[in-house]
């Protein structure tokens, strides 16, 4: 193949890759536009390394082109240039300069890395969240508040939230591009990190470690609210309205008890829901997403209940395609009543 064809092909591959990497949704939400102080200090590190790399690139290219032009072979001159091997001065120069550059990069990198992994202070005021990753969903437990939830991490704005991260199965990685991360979640080990959000909003989170068939679908959201809204959310979670009101909801609760309860817990109901294999569904009706992925509406809920494996390949959630139309509708009614 000619060189021209080769580079044309390479270029088109890069073009496709660039398109893929920018993604189709919300391309503006990146680490380059942080919305919290953890994200800001990570951006500072990224910029520091980019500036050092630009500096090295420019200096090396300048020397390269200078040498290329200044020492090019001139017509009629066949002499051997002056040989410089073993020059102590030059050897020292190109050993010491990289060491200095690496030190400039290493010192802030190490200190930032350690400060971003800081654990919650012992004074009892800090907001702690235990994050447990599962194939393919996220569990968020607030041990000091007695709340367990899934897929949506609620935090108050302008406060450091301390995360204790672990995994139930394989290695995952917690990443909210605008706020903080990435931090691995390893089975049998707890890693720590903290994050904060300066403005209320919903921030997209991703799993950043290949963890199985639905790794790329293991999404979650961080919902940052003013302290008063957060307190209200806490109060609702602690005292959820989970008791069915209508006849459909009551029948739906029966369907839930028989089919879903061994895996899914709902707090605040009179039944003993002990399930913890799947996401805790307390307040499900108020979540933005079904399965952390699709808009939380009736149609998507039914799609998920009927064929979860078609939406998240490899999910442990079984198909509930066998429910008759009436049971399915009642179950949805019940789930939509969980506020
Ligand atoms: Cu979990 Cu990738």
Automatic annotation (TrEMBL):
Transmembrane segments: 48-69, 90-110
Major location (coarse): membrane
Membrane association type: Multi-pass membrane protein
Broad enzyme group: translocase
Keyword terms: Copper, Electron transport, Heme, Iron, Membrane, Metal-binding, Respiratory chain, Translocase, Transmembrane, Transmembrane helix, Transport
Cytochrome oxidase subunit II copper A binding domain span: 124-236
Pfam (any one): Cytochrom_C
InterPro entries according to UniProt: CcO_II, CcO_II-like_C, Copper_CuA, Cupredoxin, CuRO_CcO_Caa3_II, Cyt_c-like_dom, Cyt_c-like_dom_sf, Cyt_c_oxidase_su2
Record field: catalytic activity: 4 Fe(II)-[cytochrome c] + O2 + 8 H(+)(in) = 4 Fe(III)-[cytochrome c] + 2 H2O + 4 H(+)(out)
Gene Ontology CC terms, in alphabetical order: plasma membrane
Gene Ontology biological-process annotations: ATP synthesis coupled electron transport
Protein name: Cytochrome c oxidase subunit 2
Protein species of origin: Melghirimyces profundicolus
Lineage: Bacteria, Bacillati, Bacillota, Bacilli, Bacillales
């Amino acid at each position: 193949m000619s060189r021209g064809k080769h580079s044309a092909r390479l270029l088109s591959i890069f073009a496709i890759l660039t398109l893929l990497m920018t993604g189709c949704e919300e391309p503006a939400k990146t680490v380059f536009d942080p919305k919290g102080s953890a994200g800001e200090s990570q951006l500072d590190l990224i910029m520091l390394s980019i500036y050092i790399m630009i500096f090295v690139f420019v200096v090396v290219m300048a020397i390269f082109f200078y040498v290329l032009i200044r020492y090019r072979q001139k017509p009629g001159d066949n002499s051997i240039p002056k040989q410089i091997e073993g020059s102590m001065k030059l050897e020292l120069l190109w050993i010491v300069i990289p060491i200095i550059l690496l030190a400039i990069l290493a010192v802030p990198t190490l200190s930032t890395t350690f400060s971003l992994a800081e654990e919650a202070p012992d004074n009892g005021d800090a907001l702690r969240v235990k994050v447990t990753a599962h194939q393919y969903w996220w569990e968020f437990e607030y041990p000091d508040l007695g709340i367990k939830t899934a897929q949506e991490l609620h935090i108050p704005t302008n406060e450091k939230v301390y995360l204790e991260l672990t995994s139930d199965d394989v290695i995952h990685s917690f990443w909210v591009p605008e706020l903080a991360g990435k931090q691995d979640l390893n089975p049998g080990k707890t890693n720590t990190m903290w994050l904060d959000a300066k403005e209320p909003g919903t921030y997209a989170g991703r799993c950043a470690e290949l963890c199985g068939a639905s790794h790329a679908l293991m999404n979650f959201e961080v919902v940052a609210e003013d302290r008063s809204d957060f307190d209200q959310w806490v109060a609702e979670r602690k005292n959820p309205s989970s008791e069915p009101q209508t006849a459909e909801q009551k029948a739906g609760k029966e369907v839930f008890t028989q089919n879903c309860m061994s895996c899914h817990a709902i707090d605040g109901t009179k039944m003993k829901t002990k399930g913890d294999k799947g996401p805790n569904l307390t307040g499900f009706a108020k979540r933005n997403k079904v399965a952390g992925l699709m808009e939380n509406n009736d149609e998507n809920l039914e799609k998920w209940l009927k064929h979860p494996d078609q939406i998240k390949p490899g999910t442990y959630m079984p198909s509930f395609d066998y429910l008759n139309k009436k049971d399915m509708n009642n179950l949805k009614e019940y789930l939509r009543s969980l506020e």
